[in-house]
């Protein structure tokens, strides 16, 4: 514990010395989330991370999350230095949507408006008309559908089919998935609900359709935390990465949170629902990158210029 406290103090000192600000996602280690909050940084969902990074005056941003979050920050602020604790922290959605194959898919369907999820590479964003996050994807697709547009959607098939069902839009879906959310099990969730009939169910829309179907609230990480805080219930079953429980418990003290069942977590594994790439962010590597200035995110400036249009469209829509 003494070692941890010393590391945290070192990080706080380095953030000041380097005039850097820490931006963290709700799935990373709770200590990093707390540090981001205590030092004037931000802990939030992907949309807010992007907006905060763009608007903050600091010349250096340290992004505790996964690679696409660092790349989005760089695309929005090419003049800033973006550091990440571990540059290998990727995402199964990003990995499952290589830019060349995606580009060929778009070429084959030139009549469709291309909407991509934030969890993609800069090159994929460069090929898109719109980038969206889970907090605003439904509203943006509803808006495009109202204009009579047909959509090409990538890469998350579960989020895509959820939005398709809600909006009735014509959507052609890339078949990617998140390896964390894909593991939530509808049948087991139904049984768990029966054991806790008073519980409300909070689900991230990267989960499979039969899990989403059992939700009381479907939303981004920020939206799920808000629901836990404001809903008139004391017990919640949570189907998303369990890193979120740190903030949920702090935001809704006295309420009770149960992890939704995955293939392995009922008896044998207490933390199956945790992203292995988010878990690569720790106090030690955060301190190290601040000290050395290594692990900088670079995005090809031309790719960045093309990608920023899709991100700006979302941010303008959200404003
Ligand atoms: P949110 O944008 O809902 O925070 O989720 C993005 C995500 O999947 C991070 O892994
Ligand atoms: Fe990607 Fe899923 Fe990890 Fe989010 S939780 S970064 S969507 S693999």
From TrEMBL:
Q: Which GO terms describe its molecular function?
A: 4 iron, 4 sulfur cluster binding; metal ion binding; quinolinate synthetase A activity
Q: Name one GO cellular component term.
A: cytosol
Superkingdom of the source? Bacteria
* Keywords for the protein's UniProt record, in alphabetical order: 4Fe-4S, Cytoplasm, Iron, Iron-sulfur, Metal-binding, Pyridine nucleotide biosynthesis, Transferase
**Pathway entry:** Cofactor biosynthesis; NAD(+) biosynthesis; quinolinate from iminoaspartate: step 1/1
Which EC number(s) does the record attach to this protein? 2.5.1.72
Quote the function comment for this protein: Catalyzes the condensation of iminoaspartate with dihydroxyacetone phosphate to form quinolinate.
What is the protein named? Quinolinate synthase
**Annotated organism of origin:** Massilia violaceinigra
Originating gene = nadA
């Amino acid at each position: 514990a003494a070692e941890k406290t010393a590391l945290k103090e070192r990080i706080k000192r380095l953030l000041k010395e380097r005039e850097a600000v820490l931006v963290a996602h709700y799935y990373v280690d709770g200590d990093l989330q707390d540090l981001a909050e205590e030092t004037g940084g931000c802990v939030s969902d992907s949309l807010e991370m992007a907006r905060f990074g763009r608007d903050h005056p600091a010349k250096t941003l340290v992004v505790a999350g996964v690679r696409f979050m660092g790349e989005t920050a760089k695309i929005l602020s090419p003049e800033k230095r973006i550091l990440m604790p571990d540059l290998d922290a990727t995402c199964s959605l990003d990995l499952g949507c290589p830019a060349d194959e995606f580009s060929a898919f778009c070429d084959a369907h030139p009549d469709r408006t291309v909407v991509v999820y934030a969890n993609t590479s800069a090159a994929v964003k460069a090929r898109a008309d719109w980038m969206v996050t889970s907090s605003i994807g439904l509203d943006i697709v509803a808006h495009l559908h109202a204009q009579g547009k047909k959509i090409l959607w990538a890469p998350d098939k579960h989020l895509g089919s959820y939005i398709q069902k809600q909006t009735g839009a014509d959507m052609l879906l890339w078949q990617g998935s998140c390896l964390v959310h894909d593991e939530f099990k509808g049948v087991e969730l139904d049984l768990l609900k029966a054991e806790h009939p008073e519980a409300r169910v909070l689900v991230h829309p990267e989960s499979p359709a039969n899990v989403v179907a059992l939700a009381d609230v479907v939303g981004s990480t920020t939206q799920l935390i808000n629901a836990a805080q404001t809903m008139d219930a004391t017990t919640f079953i949570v189907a998303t990465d369990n890193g979120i429980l740190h903030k949920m418990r702090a935001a809704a003290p006295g309420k009770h949170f149960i992890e939704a069942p995955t293939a392995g977590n009922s008896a044998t594994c207490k933390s199956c629902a945790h992203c292995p790439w988010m878990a690569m962010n720790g106090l030690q590597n955060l301190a190290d990158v601040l000290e050395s200035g290594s692990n900088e995110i670079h995005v090809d400036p031309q790719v960045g210029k093309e990608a920023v249009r899709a991100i700006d469209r979302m941010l303008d829509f959200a404003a």
